[in-house]
């Protein structure tokens, strides 16, 4: 299995996980020229932009640590475009990261602002 296939499998696991937690998935792999958001979901009245990080096995570096300031800024820009395109100006939103590593899931809510 190549990295793209493995990443897709991780996204599928994350989607199933958040559905089981009561989230409603609105869109997967929302892509614009500025970038991509893996999963966009709602939890009650909150729009949740989710970045999924998948790794084959545990290491000293957590998958979420690969989402630094530059990537966070990029996700914020893409999320703002999504909000504008869908006229969701008065909705609260947050950014989560879901780590899928060796079959285990770690959900980090409000991972960054």
Short structural description:
This protein has helices at 3-20, 69-85; strands at 24-32, 35-43, 46-55, 92-101, 104-112.
Structure write-up:
With 113 residues, this protein is an alpha+beta fold. It has one domain: 3-Layer(aba) Sandwich (Trna Endonuclease, Chain: A, domain 1). Helices cover 31% and strands 42% of the residues. It is built from 2 helices and 5 strands, in the order αβββαββ. The protein has a 5-stranded mixed beta sheet with strand order 1-2-3-4-5. β3 (46-55), α2 (69-85) and β4 form a beta-alpha-beta unit. It starts with a helix and ends with a strand. The model has no long low-confidence stretch (mean pLDDT 88).
Q: In what range is the share of β-strand residues?
A: 35-45%
* Overall pLDDT score: 88
Please indicate the count of domains: 1
- Assembly status: single chain
CATH architecture: 3-Layer(aba) Sandwich
Number of strands: 5
What structural class do the secondary elements suggest?
Answer: alpha+beta
CATH topology title:
Trna Endonuclease, Chain: A, domain 1
Biggest beta sheet attributes: 5 strands, mixed
Distance between the termini: 34 Å
Approximate shape = globular
Strand order across the largest sheet: 1-2-3-4-5
Our Rg estimate from Cα atoms comes to: 14 Å
Low-confidence runs: none
CATH class categorisation: Alpha Beta
The topology string of helices and strands comes to HEEEHEE
Helix content class: 25-40%
């Amino acid at each position: 299995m190549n990295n793209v296939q493995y990443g897709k499998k991780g996204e599928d696991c994350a989607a199933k996980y958040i559905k089981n937690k009561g989230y409603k998935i609105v869109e997967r792999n929302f892509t614009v020229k500025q970038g991509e958001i893996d999963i966009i979901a709602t939890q009650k009245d909150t729009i949740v932009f989710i970045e999924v990080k998948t790794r084959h096995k545990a290491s000293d570096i957590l998958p979420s640590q690969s989402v630094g300031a530059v990537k966070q800024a990029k996700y914020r820009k893409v999320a703002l475009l999504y909000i504008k395109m869908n006229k969701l100006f008065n909705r609260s939103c947050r950014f989560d990261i879901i780590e899928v590593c060796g079959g285990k899931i770690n959900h980090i809510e409000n991972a960054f602002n």
